[in-house]
Specification:
The structure is a homodimer of 305-residue chains.
Chain A lengths: L3 E5 L3 H10 L4 E5 L3 H10 L1 E5 L3 E3 L2 E3 L10 E4 L3 H11 L7 E5 L5 H8 L3 E7 L2 E6 L2 E6 L3 E5 L5 H13 L4 E3 L4 H21 L16 H18 L8 H10 L7 H7 L6 H15 L4 H15 L2
C-alpha cells in the first residue's frame, strides 16, 4: 500500500504529479525555496488545463519536517538534482525513489546518496508554470516507469497503478532504457534547436521540402543520436523522428524547456541532455559533429550572459 | 583624374568612405531614405574614433538629382543591393563601379544592371553607426581592390591611390578572389556563431583547450570553408583561422554585423554569406554539414520573429 508520496522539486512536472496524486493519497512536497513551501502550505496547489485540481499538500525545504513517505518522486531540473539528493541523504530509508529527469544518469546519482530502492522514470507530460501554486497542464501524455537494479517489477507496477488512479497516463516497462533513449535522442535534437532559433516546437522542425529547411538539421541530429543508441546496444522504444513529426502536428506548439531557460537567461540542461549523448558517443566512438556544434553554440549562449 | 565619387548606401562602411574621400574630392551620397539624404545635406557627415572628420557631402535618393561621378562605391547591405542597382540603372554610364559587399556575387548583379567598368572590393574596416550623420571608425583595417572582367589594373590602382590619399588603408591586387574568399570563409564562421550565441567576436571563438570549447566549432566551419575554396581553385590570400585568432586578440571585441541584425530582429546577411558558400559547396560537391546547420539555425531564428 502506498499511502504517502513525497514530490521533490515542484516545477511543472513535480507540480503535475503532486496536484494529481493528492486526490488518491497524502502528498508532501520538498522545495528548494522556503517561500515556495510556505505558499504551497498556505494556498495549496492549483492545476488547470487538461485537468482541474485544487490540491492540499504539505511542503517544506527540509525532509525532516515532513512525515516519512512510501514513495519519493524526484522531478527537479538537472541542475537541482545534486542539492536535492544531498538534502534527502540519510532520510526516508524505506521509501522507493522514482527519478523523472531528462537525460541519463540520474539513477546513478541517486544511488550515490542512499540505499533506496530506485524506479527509473521518464515523462512526456508538459505544462506551463503560472506561479508557485498554479501550473497549467498542457500535454497529458504518458509517464513511463521501469525497474532500476534489482527492484521487483511488481513495485514498479504498484507505483504505476497509483499514478493511473490519480488520473495520469502511465506505463510500466520491464526495461526503461529504450524509452529513456528515445526521449534523449528526441530532446537532444529538439531542445537545442529551439533554444538557438527561438522557435517553439512547431512545423519548422519537421519541414524537409526545401533543401535548406530546418527539418534537415533536426533529422541529422536525430540520426546521429540513433547511431549512438545503436552503438550502446539500445533498441529504441519509439522512433525519435516520428515523435518529432507527431509532436509538431499537435494543435499548439510546445515551448521546450531549454528555450524557456534561454529566454530567462538561466543555465540550460544542455550538459545533461546533449552532454549525455556526447559522453555516450565518445564511449562508443560514434562521430556526432552536429551535436557537438549545437552543444558549443548553447554553451556559448550561456557564456554571453 | 577622379574628381567626384558617389557613395551608394551610407551605412557604416559607406559613411567611412564618404567621410574620408570628402577631404580629397567631391563626394555625393545616394541613400535609400529621404530623411537620411536631407540630414546629410543639412548637417554633413561626422567621423569620430580612429580619425576625426567633418565632411560636406551632397546627398539624394535619386541619382538624377546628383552630378555625374567618376567612381561609384556601392557599399549597401546585401539586401539593399538590388534596389540600389535598380535605382542606378541607366545612370552614370562613364563611371567605374566599385563593389564593397560581403559574400560573393555582387559584381555579377552589378553587371546585370549596366555596362559600367567594375572594380571588386572587400573591406575589413568596421565602425559603429551613432546616427544618420555620425559614424565612429573602430577598426582602421584595409580595403582591398581588384579588377573585374577586362578593366585595366591601372584604373584599380588609381582608385586605390585616391582612397589612400584620403587617409584610408588600401591595397590593389591583380586578383581579388583569394582575398574575397578569405573574408568569406572567415565571415561564414564568425558571423553565424556570433548571431546564434550572442557573443561578440571575443576569445571564445579561438578557444580550443577544452574539448567542448567554442573554437572547435569555429575551426570546423573554417575547415569546411577552406575545403570549398580549394575545390573552387582558390588559393586563399590569408588563412581564415589566423584571421580569427588575430581578431580575437585585439583589445575590444568586435560586434559582428549578423549579431547586430539578430538583436535588432532584422533580416541577416546569412543567405549572402553562408548561402554563397553553400552554393559553391554544392557546385563542387564538397560536404559542409556545419555550414548547413548554422544556416538552418539562423534562418530558423529569422522565422521566429
Amino acid at each position: 500500500m502506498i499511502e504517502r508520496v513525497c514530490i521533490v522539486g515542484a516545477g511543472v512536472i513535480g507540480s503535475l504529479f503532486a496536484g494529481h496524486l493528492a486526490s488518491v493519497c497524502e502528498v508532501t512536497v520538498l522545495t528548494r525555496r522556503r517561500e515556495h513551501a510556505e505558499a504551497l502550505n498556505r494556498e495549496g496547489l492549483r492545476i488547470t488545463g487538461r485537468s482541474e485540481r485544487q490540491a492540499r499538500v504539505r511542503a517544506a525545504t527540509d525532509p525532516s519536517e515532513l512525515p516519512e513517505p512510501d514513495v519519493v518522486i524526484v522531478a527537479t531540473k538537472a541542475s537541482g538534482l545534486r542539492p536535492a539528493l544531498e538534502a534527502l541523504s540519510g532520510h526516508y530509508p524505506r521509501a522507493t525513489v522514482v527519478t523523472v529527469l531528462n537525460g541519463l544518469g540520474a539513477e546513478e546519482m541517486v544511488r550515490e546518496h542512499g540505499d533506496w530502492q530506485i524506479v527509473s522514470g521518464v515523462t512526456f507530460m508538459s505544462g506551463t508554470r503560472h506561479s508557485d501554486t498554479h501550473v497549467e497542464y498542457i500535454l497529458d501524455t504518458e509517464t513511463w516507469l521501469g525497474p532500476y537494479e534489482d527492484i521487483p517489477f511488481e513495485r514498479v507496477r504498484e507505483i504505476a497503478e497509483l499514478l493511473e488512479s490519480a488520473g495520469l497516463k502511465v506505463e510500466a516497462l520491464p526495461d526503461l532504457r529504450p524509452a529513456q533513449w528515445s526521449k534523449l535522442v528526441f530532446n537532444a535534437a529538439v531542445n537545442p534547436v529551439a533554444a538557438l532559433t527561438g522557435l517553439p516546437h512547431d512545423w519548422h522542425f519537421a519541414a524537409e521540402e526545401d533543401p535548406f529547411d530546418l527539418g534537415h538539421l533536426v533529422h541529422g541530429l536525430i540520426d546521429e543520436g540513433k547511431a549512438v543508441a545503436a552503438s550502446a546496444g539500445i533498441e529504441l522504444h519509439d522512433d525519435p523522428w516520428e515523435m518529432n513529426v507527431l509532436a509538431t502536428r499537435r494543435g499548439s506548439a510546445h515551448y521546450p524547456s531549454m528555450l524557456e531557460d534561454v529566454e530567462a537567461r538561466r543555465p540550460t540542461e544542455i550538459d545533461l541532455i546533449t552532454g549525455s549523448l556526447l559522453r555516450e558517443a565518445e564511449r562508443h566512438g560514434v562521430p556526432v559533429p552536429l551535436h557537438a556544434a549545437v552543444h558549443a553554440l548553447v554553451k556559448g549562449k550561456e557564456a554571453s550572459w
